[in-house]
Amino acid sequence: MKVRTTFAIGLAALALTSCSSKAVSSQDGTGADGVKTGKGVTKDKITLGALTDLTGVYATLGKSITQAQQLYFEQLNAAGGVCGRKVDLLVRDHGYDVQKGVSAYSEVQPKVAGITQLIGSPVLGAVLPNLERDKLLVIPAAWPSSVLKEKYVQVVGSTYEIEVINGIDFLVRKKGLAKGAKVGHVYFEGEYGESALKGAKHAAAAAGLTIVEQRIKPTDTDMTSQVSALKAAGVKAIVLSAGPKQAASLAGVAAASGLDVPIVSNNPGFAPQLLGTAAGPALQKNFYLVNGLQASSSNVPGIKALVAAYGKKYPGQTIDNGVSFGYVSAKVFGEALKDACKAKDLTREGILAAHRTHAAFDSDGIAPKLDFSQVGKIGTLESFVQKPDAKAAGGLTTVEGPFTAEAAKTFTVG
Amino acid sequence: MSRPPLTALLWLPLLILPFYVDMFWLQAGLFVMAAAIGAIGLNLLTGSTGQLSMGHAFFLAVGAYGYVYFAGETSGHVTGLGLPAPVAAVLAVALSGLAGWAFSPIAGRVSGVYLAIASLALIFLGQHVLFNLESVTGGYNGRAVPPMKLFGFAFDDSSELIVAGVPFGGLERLWYLGIALLLAAMLFARGVLGARPGRAMNLVRDQRIAAAALGVPVGKVRAKAFTLSSMYAGLAGVLLALTFQRAVPDYFGMLLALDYLAMIVIGGLGSVGGAVAGAAFVTLLPQLLARYSGDLPLVAAPGADGISPAVAARYLYGAAVVAVVLFLPTGLSGLLSGRLPGLRRSATPMKEESPQ
């Protein structure tokens, strides 16, 4: 009796599975218009994914990037879309939680043709092995050099190392930093800070400077002890590879304790909201941001159009770096899709191949010309130096750039 | 062990699930299984022995990284021993047990909130070590997890396998491994709780002095419970690592430890089935809400103004936790054993009162 029941259940299970929707079937096909399509592309829609952080530590950045990307795809669709198809952005918020990020990736992956935004190095690290299997092109909202060798990851812009090298070059040329001087470097533990440190050491060796290291945790927001240590060491300038909170504290405490030296920071070290805080005046005096993107207050046509369109769609919202970055990275995908359409191949491989043909990607001046043609190569060696200014749009004005330090050309990733 | 047929029937749908559902569900299910194993372990300690531990995430990390280190190969800046995967998994569980045993002089001596604070130190210690011991953990970005291989059968996507017309990738294969491990973990915990050690643990929890007077070595029981619970955490860590395919230090932090406490409280202290139910509740709910909250009324699309789905998911999750604690003092296990008569006998023979 029991055996028979088990047997019956087994048979029923087999019968059920034969009609499973998961059964093997080819995903790639060719549409009526002769365009090869793959996952995420139907006859009237192309879906792209965004794994972002709207509720965690990078919520401000995530919101700006997401809105800017939605703006870009809205414009793209208004202009007719790509290959007669609308482009849709599927947004998932993981709140900077690795497990949620990985689940969101698994959920989104079968539905999209690419991922235009991925916030969070830990999340990127966790999905990295799957990208190869899924052949999915991803643009991370980070600039580490360690992923340059990954075929399916595209860093848009330069890297943390290059920013620091260009920043130190700026200090030497414009701030009179002489040979033998000491430079303090306050950096986050983890990949961001440690990549930046590599750059700082390279630049210091080239310019004959000494680096005084101060390693901090992302949870450290009071820079008093770092400032006193750097003051005691007699530094003539400070490099900061941390977040906006640390920048505010560092500039404020340094000014209060009479350490009147220039501070150059990697691009994640500033947010326009800082100018409203007590550290605002100190930041405007001594703080310089090394950035891979034009300041929102500059006059290049791409920025002007973006600021106008963004202000119209999201009135009253702060325009920060995330907006420019989100727009440029969405455009990187948009252009890849257009070229993939010309080649009549909208599969994931087709999109990647089209993307890799761009050796001098032009974003109307929002970013320097970017080279995506070689895996393992930094997209650009150019940076801008910007200065906080409470009166400017986005809180930053351009000081210099784009420029490339000599030392940046001799830097090798590895 | 004669078990009611109804319970066995509940497992059947789980066996055919991989033929139907997509990766998202399989992954979510595997997270639940791993969390359930870990929660059973914590429940043995907190629910049954009355020892509050905040260090559970640390032992999960020991299990996960232990496996990665033992099974991984030396390449680039990371080192590994390159042992066969099953051996590495067993060693990783043993290593977690060893770590728990090393902590047991403290676990045997202090109790309740004091142990919670002492074990909290493990989390911070663990985070520091994980971030800095780069040759083992890969540092901030973590390290790839070598796939499980049993008798030449790999639990990953490397070889093609089609069962009844459905392609079986890594997650589908892992699913059955997860079910087997979870079943074993549940049966073992029931065995422990139903026999002498379980009675000793309960007595240590309820009446420490009476336990000592009856000849139960209180310190030793606490220390052993802590070691056993760490081994469960280690096993959960191994399964988690296999599901993630990459072990990232950031994950094994304070929040994870709190999640595990939430699981056993919501599930019902001291009950094995409750721990599993709690693990499912805590692991699945946020993911489901995040996935489907876009379809709820009054929720704005992600990126737009208003309550975003993720925020709505958090509110709902918080409300659900409060509701369970308010209206189900014995947790989900109380609900299950109260409503479904067929399950009553399978619930562990334990007092339903809270440990303190």
UniProtKB/TrEMBL annotation, chain A:
Keywords: Signal
Annotated coiled-coil segments of the chain: none
Source organism superkingdom: Bacteria
Pfam families: Peripla_BP_6
Leucine-binding protein domain sequence ranges: 45-365
InterPro entries named among the record's database cross-references: Leu-bd (IPR028081), Peripla_BP_I (IPR028082)
Signal peptide: 1-23
PANTHER family xrefs: BLR6548 PROTEIN
Family per record: Belongs to the leucine-binding protein family.
Name of the protein in question: Leucine-binding protein domain-containing protein
Organism field: Actinomadura macrotermitis
TrEMBL record, chain B:
Keywords: Cell membrane, Membrane, Transmembrane, Transmembrane helix
UniProt-recorded Gene Ontology molecular function terms: branched-chain amino acid transmembrane transporter activity
Keyword Cell membrane set for record: yes
Compartments where found: Cell membrane
Membrane topology annotation: Multi-pass membrane protein
GO cellular component terms, semicolon-separated: plasma membrane
Transmembrane segments: 28-45, 52-71, 83-103, 110-131, 174-193, 230-248, 260-285, 315-336
Claim: Membrane is one of the keywords in the record: yes
Chief localization: membrane
Protein name: Branched-chain amino acid ABC transporter permease
Species assigned in the record: Actinomadura macrotermitis
